[in-house]
């Protein structure tokens, strides 16, 4: 049985996650090919030594199984592509770098990408297609929704609930909640880089600064 693995997106996110994908297969002792899918391509190309093609060309590849990691930072695009893959019967592929620490009782849904030096604490539940970039952590008892994105160096402390499609910028830190009163980052909220989040953030809001405050339009 041959499996073709792919990284969807050949821009910054995809090219950073390809080495993670290689580490994932190497640990499994699997020598299968990994390609890039990128819809900006019209012809078969080569990106960092891997074959690269658009989604239609990928569909035309004849193999018994196809697994795809959606390596695109924009969570709405990730969701749209995940729906298309599901409709086409293609599996979402989770990839984990070699130097990732996973503690006890972690539920991690399909399609995740855990970059080098990410740590996930105990009793954490994470939804579909989670991206945790370099050096980010998620501490104990957090609940993370679908299509959440962490830029590098995010410090997500214990008892925090992050809802679907939230984006947490580089180096942001979020204050821990308590078991009865978790700190909540609402659906689609954006936390600016370096923000120090001390209280819950409403759905759709953008917060910046220390202490983080809702950004208002000027
Ligand atoms: N892309 C794609 N299909 C889509 C949407 C995006 O192949 O439906 C590709 C797009 O051509 C680009 C990449 O995904 O190469 C997204 O790259 P971008 O630089 O916007 O962001 P990144 O997620 O890499 O930071």
UniProtKB/TrEMBL annotation:
Record GO terms (molecular function): transferase activity
Protein name stated in the entry: Acetyltransferase
Family to which this protein belongs: Belongs to the transferase hexapeptide repeat family.
Active site: residue positions: 140
Record InterPro entries: AcTrfase_PglD-like (IPR020019), PglD_N (IPR041561), Trans_hexapeptide_repeat (IPR050179), Trimer_LpxA-like_sf (IPR011004)
Site (Increases basicity of active site His): 141
Record has Transferase as a keyword: yes
Domain of life of the native organism: Bacteria
Pfam families recorded: PglD_N (PF17836)
Keywords (A to Z) from UniProt: Transferase
Phylogenetic placement of the source organism: Bacteria, Pseudomonadati, Pseudomonadota, Gammaproteobacteria, Moraxellales
Organism of this sequence: Acinetobacter tianfuensis
Signal peptide range in chain numbering: none
Ranges where the PglD N-terminal domain occurs: 6-85
